[in-house]
Amino acid sequence: MKNTVGHPLKKYFRGEINYTTCSGCGNGIISQSILRAIDEIAIIFDQIAFVSGIGCSGWIPSPSFNTDVLHVTHGRSIAFATGLKLAAPQMKVIVCAGDGDTGAIGGNHFIHAARRNIDLTVVCVNNGIFGMTGGQVAPTTPYNSVTTTTPYGSIERPFDLSNLAIAAGATFVARWTTYHARSLKNSIKKAIEHKGFSFIEVISQCPVQYGKVIGMRNDPVSMLMHYKECAVNINKAKNMSADELKDKIIVGELVEKKNIPELTDEIKRLRREASRK
Amino acid sequence: MVQINKDACKGCGICIAMCPVKILVFSDELNSRGVHFPKITQEEKCTKCENCMIYCPDFAVVVKKDEK
Ligand SMILES: Cc1ncc(C[n+]2csc(CCOP(=O)(O)OP(=O)(O)O)c2C)c(N)n1
Ligand code: SF4
Ligand code: SF4
Ligand code: SF4
Ligand SMILES: [Mg+2]
User: Fold this and answer.
1) Is A22 in the B-facing interface, judged by CB distances under 8 Å?
2) How many domains does chain B have?
3) DSSP character for A5?
4) Domain of A164?
5) What is the pLDDT of residues A155-203, one digit of tens each?
């Protein structure tokens, strides 16, 4: 579909801006937030490489963004990104992953990349579901949700991906929802500039598959308003009880640690030291 | 100035909901995808907040701050 109106972010696209996402999908809002962050940092786009896995979220950079984009197998985006960063440490590497990609099949890659504090920026699109494959339960789906694969309600409790990242050693962690597109953009800016493993969880609407689960089918506006109502900033959440925080989404910059050794720097140091022996 | 690329629109209604002064409405017309796209009414009330642009998942809205 030809986009006749000149969009200020058009310069980052290979051709026409033409997402094949469903109407109202959060992916496009996240795409804009990533690109506006890059635009504001004024970094050369060619110095950034994107890696994405299989899933709707994988189509945020691929094949649209006009720089290096690796669209790899499901769950392996962080593994490929690790290899890319080790081979080309001068590149800024941004991963666009789904919650299934990150928390299910790719869970081990995720926690170990955080533990190693490798300089990657992971933007995790958490829509609470396996979107692309038809609404199957994900490790992020809330307890007792009816999905395609849990017709009587899910009996497993979900991962809190941001807390998992923090526990595993990530040195920059933020969580926002698509309702917080501006704050999201600001945290992505910080994450790109942060030296170390940055994890940004974005609670994002999948009105088609997850909308069904919460009775908001094909209603992205209600989902956005739901995020607005449920969101509590971390600064406020600190003084609230677990009961008060039930069903809330804690948003904000959760962790920022500086001066923790980063993996590619450690490898350089090791090389230097080994060559002296 | 707020420009809407009607054929890129998927009719989700997010821009309409996010406009703080409620000047966007669905048009009666259909675009080439067969959905009702938004149109701007009373543009003089526009605060140029850019919400409609920032929240459009399909990059169908452009707000030009320096143009009337
Ligand atoms: C190795 C492998 N296992 C399973 C699949 C099937 N598969 C494709 S996408 C996907 C899950 C997508 O969910 P998520 O990562 O949350 O992305 P979303 O579509 O929700 O953005 C699965 C299970 C696959 N493509 N490859
Ligand atoms: S299935 Fe869900 S996540 Fe995938 S494009 Fe559609 S709305 Fe977006
Ligand atoms: S720029 Fe803001 S005020 Fe103007 S139409 Fe868009 S959302 Fe409404
Ligand atoms: S947000 Fe974009 S796609 Fe949705 S109705 Fe508005 S112009 Fe159309
Ligand atoms: Mg998902």
Assistant:
1) yes
2) 1
3) S
4) 24-276
5) 999 999 999 999 999 999 999 999 999 999 999 999 999 999 999 999 9
